[in-house]
Design brief:
By secondary structure, the chain is of the alpha+beta class. It has 24 helices and eleven strands. Strands 6, 7, 8, 9 and 10 form a five-stranded antiparallel beta sheet that branches. A four-stranded antiparallel beta sheet has the order 2-3-1-4, sandwiched between helices. A hairpin with a 4-residue loop joins strand 8 and strand 9. The longest helix is centred in the N-terminal third of the chain and has 36 residues.
Length: about 700
């Protein structure tokens, strides 16, 4: 009698208790699905900051002692090409905007336009400041609610625009949310088409989508409940949706393909086929899911609310997708049995899941390993080379659509008050040191203007410093660093630009740590799964090739601007700073999916035959089609984001799409089999001391 491991026994249980499993998941879907529609309005729009940084401390002091006139304050720009602040129509817009701001409970104080500071020299642009009465996330929601009302005030040749950091994040989040939703609407039919072609059956193709939909409902509901405890970024939802789709398809493909193979030519009951499937493919899916969770856990090492909540959102979606893959999917397969191939395409012939085409490809790689291996390495290295000139920076105003209120107001402030005016720095100091701060700031070569010190509560003073360079210019960051080194002790340099600078510095400092933790933990998990240190190490290290190549392509497109016209964006001259650390974790997680699928199948064949060729050829023959189909779906999904309007989704779509494309087709389906060929039996070598301490994990069954 066949002996199955824990995952196999769980699969057999779910297959024989369909009703119990279905009711349990129906309850999960109903309960959490009830909260899912509420999640969008509960998520936070800010959180892009370095917790504990000087700039965050400056903002907190400004909020407490200066009527909320911190980086979170709302800024309303009133501008006219034909009128001045002395004209009645202009004054009426100022009065109406001021009244609208005062009526909002989230506004602590309103500062009208002041000559010499917030009224331009030509008197055609005036700025109203509304102090923050709440935290940055709430002020972004305030901007969401107020920007349309303020926009309606314009007329008679006078423009009214809500800008500032809160206004920018509001427009930025709205544009990205709309783009993500549009891309997802496009990706669903594309995904279904690829799945139908991959499975050759409408019923089988529907299973990954079922898994994904349930995972999405549960994830969205869980995120809403999470917002009752802590602030969770709206980006967490976006990434959770994307990962639920990607991993749901990956895992369902692997399990369903294996189930169809277990059914083919078998006289055993259906529940036996389910148990066999889960004992092999299900175990690989479990290890893959744990690897993904480990990769994202490393992102938690970055002390930034937005980053941690994004990682948390993805982890929640992975947990639900993994749980559904290991319980609901085998239960459905047990219920369907041979009917999983119902509604098959007329030209499709179902059969054993070993692919003759990938077997033939593996045989070719076995005969010519050096030729194919060299080709893959040449392409990957050529694409990696540009990464050494990669520059990063925090998103500039260019990521906001040109017609949006925050960008219109930003441009008007810059034209009327100078390049650096939208990025005015806020120096919080004592009233006793305010004079010294003013002298030091005026002497700095990167400063265009220093405002008179504003006295505040508790003996504090606020000195506003206008840089001479654009907020996204590297020179502005250098100005911040000089001021911090030269100002009196205790003076805090803040403002939205300083917050971006501190976050960028934090990301740069933490990236090596995150990468190191991901690689080490990924190796340990792969070592446990494969019981083979050499191939586990190479499986992890080869993931770096596709990652490096993807970022090399990113530099050419987003930094140098190649193809920007075709893709419809204005290059910033750098890649957004959050990309390297976050995308690395995401790429590694996805690539480890394919690594586990391929190498677990190869290990299964090695354990049965102890023949290196059979391990390589059989592993590729059994997993190649799944990797090919899963990668095809992911590339299609990710590239739909490249068609969206705002820049960040384009960055995400291109980088992740290119990474998956290269990792699946050059690394996992070409280079990794070549490595198995060249290593031979050494790929599966396990030192005896290591064998004594590792848990006994096998992907076959007795």
């Amino acid at each position: 009698m066949t002996q199955f491991g824990p995952i196999g026994r769980l699969g057999r249980y779910t297959a024989t208790h369909f009703r119990t499993v279905a009711i349990a998941w129906a309850l999960v879907a109903v309960v959490l699905g009830f909260f899912a529609p509420k999640v969008e309005h509960a998520l936070s729009g800010a959180g892009w900051e370095a917790s504990g940084s000087e700039s965050v401390a400056a903002r907190q002091v400004a909020d407490e002692n200066f009527g909320g006139l911190s980086s979170s304050a709302l800024m309303v720009v009133v501008h006219s090409d034909t009128q001045t602040v002395k004209d009645a129509a202009f004054q009426q817009r100022i009065a109406s905007a001021t009244a609208a701001l005062k009526d909002d409970s989230r506004v602590k104080s309103v500062v009208p336009p002041q000559p010499g500071t917030s009224i331009s020299r030509d008197q055609r642009t005036a700025i109203i400041q509304a102090g923050a009465a709440s935290d940055p996330n709430t002020m972004v929601r305030a901007a969401d609610d107020l920007k349309e009302e303020l926009h309606q005030l314009q007329g008679d040749g006078v423009q009214v625009s809500l800008t500032g950091a809160s206004g920018m994040w509001s427009d930025f989040n709205t544009a990205n949310r709309d783009a993500m939703m549009k891309s997802e609407l496009i990706s669903w039919p594309v995904t279904l088409l690829i799945l139908v072609l991959a499975f050759g059956s409408l019923v089988a193709a529907g299973l990954p989508l079922m898994l994904t939909i349930i995972g999405l409902m549960a994830s969205a509901g869980s995120l809403y409940l999470g917002t009752q405890i802590l602030d969770i970024s709206i980006w967490a939802m976006n990434f959770a949706l994307m990962f639920a789709l990607a991993l749901g398809i990956d895992y369902a493909l692997f399990i369903v393909y294996r189930f169809r193979g277990a059914l083919f030519g078998s006289e055993e009951p259906v529940e036996h086929a389910v148990a066999e499937t889960m004992d092999t493919a299900g175990k690989a899916v479990l290890f893959s899911g744990i690897t993904v969770l480990i990769s994202l856990t490393a992102v938690m090492l970055v002390p930034s609310p937005a980053f941690r909540s994004m990682a948390l959102g993805i982890m929640i979606s992975v947990v639900f997708i993994l749980a559904a893959s290991l319980t609901l999917l085998p239960a459905v397969l047990g219920k369907l049995g041979p009917r999983v191939d119902k509604l098959a395409l007329p030209w499709v012939h179902q059969g054993e899941h070993r692919s003759a085409k990938f077997a033939a490809w593996a045989e070719r790689l076995w005969r010519h390993p050096y030729a194919f291996g060299s080709l893959a390495l040449i392409v990957l290295v050529a694409l990696i080379v540009p990464v050494f000139g990669l520059k990063t920076g925090m998103p500039s105003i260019k990521v906001v659509p040109e017609q949006d209120s925050s960008r219109v107001g930003y441009n008007q402030v810059q034209q009327s008050f100078g390049k650096g005016a939208p990025g005015t720095l806020q120096v919080v100091t004592t009233q006793a040191d305010a004079g010294r701060v003013t002298v030091v700031a005026k002497a700095d070569p990167g400063v265009a203007q220093v405002m008179p010190a504003m006295p505040g509560a508790g003996g504090k003073a606020l000195v506003q410093v206008v840089p001479s360079t654009d907020p996204s210019d590297r020179a502005t960051a250098a100005t911040i660093d000089r001021l911090r080194s030269e100002l009196p002790a205790g003076a805090l340099v803040g403002g939205s630009v300083a917050e971006n600078h501190d976050l960028e510095t934090l990301l740069s400092d933490k990236t090596p740590l995150v990468v190191g933790v991901v690689l080490i933990l990924g190796f340990l998990l792969l070592l446990i799964a494969l019981q083979a240190p050499i191939i586990a190490a190479l499986g992890v290290l080869t993931s770096l090739l596709a990652t490096g190549a993807a970022f090399g392509v990113a530099r050419l497109i987003f930094q140098e601007g190649h193809g920007s016209g075709l893709l419809g964006f204005e290059p910033q001259g750098f890649l957004d700073a959050w990309g390297p650390v976050f995308f690395f974790a995401m790429i590694f997680a996805i690539s480890m999916d394919y690594t586990v699928f391929l190498l677990s199948s190869a290990k299964e064949h090695w354990d049965r035959s102890h023949d290196a060729k059979e391990a390589m050829v059989g592993g590729l023959a059994h997993s190649g089609r799944v990797i090919f189909a899963a990668a095809g779906v992911m590339v299609a999904v990710f590239f739909t984001f490249a068609l969206s309007g705002p820049l960040p989704p384009k960055e995400m779509g291109i980088i992740l799409g290119v990474a998956v494309l290269l990792d699946a087709f050059l690394v996992r389906l070409l280079l990794m089999p070549v490595i198995l060929r060249l290593l031979g039996p050494w790929a599966w070598w396990l030192p005896k001391p290591l064998a004594r301490i590792l848990p006994d994990v096998r992907f076959g069954h007795a």
